[in-house]
Amino acid sequence: MQSFIVSFIVSACRYSLYAVLNHSGQTNSGHYTACIRFGPGCWCLCDDQKIVPVSVDYVLTTDAYVLLYHKNILAVRS
Length: 78
Fold this sequence. Notes:
Layout (H helix, E strand, L loop, with lengths): L7 E17 L6 E9 L2 E6 L2 E5 L1 H5 L3 E14 L1
Antiparallel strand pairs: 1-2, 1-5, 2-3, 3-4
GO molecular function: cysteine-type deubiquitinase activity
Enzyme class: hydrolase
EC number: 3.4.19.12
């Protein structure tokens, strides 16, 4: 039975950016927005009452306050 069991060894981790939180205004007040990735190359700007598609270039040029990453574990068969 052991020959039919495939084990995985964690070899490395990669991280994918999935959200960028933005802040505009002063340190004690202001406005927050978020750019969230909904799929490969598909980003949306979430701003209070609206969600609109935006380009990757838009995401990369915003005033980022917090970056959120998803951990991708790469496994190698042994």
